[in-house]
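Predict structure. Chain length: 86.
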Amino acid sequence: MAPPGAVRDRRASGRRPRQGTLTLSPAHRPIQITKDLPGFWKGSWRDVKVEMKGCYPRYVWPDDPAGAAPTTRAKPRGTWGSLSLI
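Prediction complete.
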């Protein structure tokens, strides 16, 4: 049985849920395989975001990816890792 919200595969006459590989890392490596994309954004995304923030701190990892504005840079200049010499 497919999870609620799963996208059905039309080639199998809707009998199988479609499986997708999410490649969201800056290294273009797959980070998640899912059959329930809406469920991923509502649940698993938080865990993936925490892990990706640790691996790739220079990149923006929004809390709500659907509402976030697209970016062309990793992070705006001067917003990540400022040194304070005391």
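Summary: The helical segments are 37-55.
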